[in-house]
Amino acid sequence: MNPEMDSRPRLAPGCRLGENNQQRVLLMPERALRLNGPSLEIVERCDGKHTVQQIITDLQKIYSKAQPQKVEEDILGYLALLQKERALDFDL
Amino acid sequence: MAVSWSAGAQLPLFRQLRAQSSMPNEISNPLALITELTHRCPLHCVYCSNPLELQARTNELSTEIWTRVFQEAAGAGVLQADLTGGEPLTRPDIIELVGAARSAGLYVNLITSGLPLDEARLAALVAAGLDHIQLSFQGAHEETANEISGTKSHAQKLRVLDWLRQHRVAVTLNFVIHRRNIDQLAEMLAIAESSCAARIEFANVQYYGWAFANRENLLPTRAQLDQSLAFVKREQERLQGRIRIEYVVPDYYAKYPKPCMGGWGRKLMLITPSGDALPCHAAQVIPGLSFENVKDRGLREIWEHSAAFQKFRGEDWMQEPCKTCDRREQDFGGCRCQALLLAGDAAATDPVCSLAPLRPKVDTILAGLNLISDPVAAGLAPPAASQLARPSWLYRPNPA
């Protein structure tokens, strides 16, 4: 179940970025995910302002050496996973 | 410098994420700190996870010491603080404590019955930095819930759920499951669906302490358990992306033991109301263990050097079949307290494990139960909770 391209993901209540020992983490109920490179770039853009399409376009620019199609697939997969974790809400 | 897409581990992002969520095997930071702020509680639940010997108010740590503990925890790498009890809201300084944990840099989780709560206090907790509230429920309706908690509690919980709509905080409903309410899962889920909760936890009772004393009246039958598992599987699919459903089976029915506390001294640390640092809720039942107190030593020092944390850390303490078992890095030999309670030896393989020499003991307990409770024939519905006579419960008292 992939998110809509024009929806705007934002972190769900009780999910926020944190930092510990110089490591950025996504804090959520009973869980925490370490964020590095791409995963941090994505989560930082889950602010209710960026659309899914904008996040993809941004990251395709940042990671211009990677195949654009691959970047898109990974981002959609990652957002779907975060949604399954109930870490994201999608505003339309 | 531009980073290539699969920099470092050469993993696609999705797999990289999964890899990150599994923890390394070496002794690392504690990740969560469970703080039993008090043992006082308006409920008297017959499966309470507190020890049989409860701490009085006069032994409780001060606001200042808890504040220091939160700061030391964050410094030691802890990410999350679980504020629990007893009922943590019986502490008059609970708002200050939430603020102290949040200021220290921790993710703040409050585990509460919701009883000593009103709208203003809830708003103050959220304003102080509460991230996540876990509201405990004893059943889907008044009658069961009140019987299990030994007090009138259910209606207040529904009020709290309603107030929570106004706040930006994660909400989990915790239903503790046993023979007398396991047939109510659909109604429990309906409560979650009509609320703002994003998570619901159906956690079957595990049998230590108060629950061990009341086990004969709490263990579900095999038929009940199978039915509940099928229900949860269906509903997890239906509610995917909306409500996350967690289900914890009773150890006695499991094929392999749970990785208790994520492994002894690997991820979690528990502080009792009086400041003792324990590797798990029930560790005090294990003879010969002595516990350090946060009043005397720093948290990181206790984590790394305390004899109690070292005792079952790693694999050196293991007996056969754990010692050479392929699963020893998955379940770490199971639960030490359960080994003590059932095998009389805290270093034994958790007897719930199908590979444990003492598994027949657990099977005998289950066989006795299922024989009594399924009198007609296999395949029939389990007896409704109401058909079972009201047992004589051992209720947990409220300490002074």
Task: Describe it.
The complex is a heterodimer of chains A (92) and B (400). By secondary structure, chain A is α+β, with helices and mostly antiparallel strands. Chain A has three helices and five strands, in the order E-E-E-E-H-H-H-E. Chain A has helices spanning 37-44, 52-62, 68-84, and strands at residues 8-11, 16-20, 23-28, 31-34, 88-91. In chain A, a hairpin with a 2-residue loop joins strand 2 (16-20) and strand 3. The longest helix of chain A is centred in the C-terminal third of the chain and has 17 residues, at 68-84. With 400 residues, chain B is of the alpha/beta class. In chain B, strands 7-6-5-4-3-2-1-8-9 form a nine-stranded mixed β-sheet. In chain B, helix 2 runs parallel beside helix 3 (94-103). Chain B is globular and about 55 Å long. Chain A binds chain B through residues 1, 12-16, 18-21, 25, 27-34, 36-39, 62-66, 70-71, 74-75, 77-78, 81, 83-86, and chain B through 2-8, 12-14, 16-17, 20-21, 29, 31, 74, 77, 79-80, 105, 107, 109, 131-132, 167-172, 198-199, 240-244.
